[in-house]
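User: I'll paste a sequence; please echo it back and then give the predicted structure.

Assistant: Echoing your sequence first, then the prediction.
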Amino acid sequence: MSARNLHSQVVQQLGQLIVSGKLAPGEGLPREDLLAEKLNVSRTALREAMKVLVAKGLIESRQRTGARVREAVHWKQLDQDVLAWRCASMPTNDFVDKLVEMRELIEPGAAAAAAKRRTTDQLAALKAAYEAMAAAEDLDAWAEADLAFHETMLMATNNELMVSLFTVIETALGQYFLLSARKAVDFKAALPQHAKVLEAIRRKQPEVARTAMFDMVDASRRNIRRRR
């Protein structure tokens, strides 16, 4: 295995242990030589991995005290790896609630912006994603199409910052949509709500789109809470 793959593997191993809580905040890591031996990697690969984890805010490394796990408040929470590691241990009630709250802040406004600025091609792509949801025969297909619907809606805002935000939270949203569908009696229960958002964007009705999207997110929140 190449040195790059080795240090990436160490990043994944340690990152998952930290984010899952198996390595607790404030806990010190073993000495470099012992940790390298335990993970069966060179000290060079371990050092490179530790640099990545420091950059992600998961650990701090000091000359006298060594490496130590940091409190979650210091983590780069929107880092794609950190999000993926959190999603790997989903569902945790706290994380799901925070993800729903983030959706409530972002997606209704995005739906309104899409209704104002979407192009004909973007509307066609949004409709295609909706039709893929309607045609989905299993949970995985539904979640994939659902994610595509929300991604296409954000693209239709024609706001590059909004689009960039989606690329950051894509992993978490994909897991959330799958979780939400699993909790529903019928995984297609949210289809009429998506139809309302699609129609409001088609008609270029920003406030209708905003309300429809907020209602969709709120219904998803209630569904998950009811079935915990």
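The chain has a mean pLDDT of 88. The radius of gyration is 21 Å.
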